[in-house]
Write a sequence for this structure.
């Protein structure tokens, strides 16, 4: 990969493949296009976390899916168990609605908090948290048909990812987590153009998520300028391995 493609990656010195540990009802699951009732379960969260660390994960992506839908952190105990067990950086989202809660999580050992609904409804929360813990806020911009969606991907926010990214960069966000809900969990490939547009529109790193099924998908997102990619279903189903996914990009640099 060219040096130019690595510019603007902020805290990500090199492109990183981040395993997803999405938790619903205390179990690791993967949803198709974010819809409840489509989930496939993959066991216990601490076991999954250890598996990915043993496979070489440098960061874990933890999501409380019940929290994302209900607005309260329903899987706090399971997530606390993961944080207490692992020795790699973690980024946590789902049900974090206040600055106080985010700051408490950061002080308890979470490295980055992911804000979706809270950031859209109350943008100043990003600045409030970032002032106390610089570099700790990832804003989640989840999009369906080109529109940012909130409340567990059930409600449109009336703005595009590019419009939103510009706002949060100014408020001190450390990165944007962009999930393309249209391809999420389907294992049918990625859409790179929305990622490229977002990368070009903001100075902060863009973490891509949604649709990765092959090593070519990982390379395509890296080539689009993403600083990292979150991978879920493809890893759990074994269509790609973490080592191969990372090597696929490292080998092009």
């Amino acid at each position: 990969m060219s040096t130019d493609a690595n510019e603007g990656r902020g805290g990500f010195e090199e492109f990183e493949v981040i395993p997803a540990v999405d938790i619903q009802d205390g179990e690791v699951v993967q949803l198709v296009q974010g819809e409840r009732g489509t989930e496939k379960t993959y066991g216990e969260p601490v076991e999954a976390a250890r598996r990915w660390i043993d496979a070489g994960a440098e960061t874990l992506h933890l999501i409380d899916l019940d929290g994302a839908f209900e607005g309260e952190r329903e899987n706090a105990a399971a997530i606390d168990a993961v944080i207490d067990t692992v020795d790699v950086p973690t980024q946590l989202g789902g049900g974090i609605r206040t600055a106080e809660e985010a700051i408490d999580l950061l002080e308890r050992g979470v490295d980055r908090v992911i804000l979706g609904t809270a950031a859209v409804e109350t943008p100043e929360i990003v600045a409030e948290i970032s002032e106390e813990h610089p570099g700790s806020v990832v804003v989640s911009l989840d999009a369906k048909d080109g529109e940012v969606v909130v409340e567990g991907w059930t409600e449109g926010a009336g703005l595009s990812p590019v419009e939103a990214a510009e706002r949060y960069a100014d408020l001190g966000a450390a990165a944007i987590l962009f999930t393309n809900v249209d391809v999420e969990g389907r294992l049918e490939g990625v859409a790179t153009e929305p990622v490229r547009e977002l990368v070009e529109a903001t100075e902060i790193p863009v973490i891509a998520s949604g649709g990765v099924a092959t090593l070519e998908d990982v390379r395509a997102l890296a080539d689009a300028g993403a600083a990292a990619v979150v991978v879920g279903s493809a890893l759990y189903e074994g269509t790609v391995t973490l080592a191969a996914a990372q090597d696929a990009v490292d080998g092009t640099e």
The chain has one domain: 15-250. The longest strand covers residues 16-24. The mean pLDDT is 87.
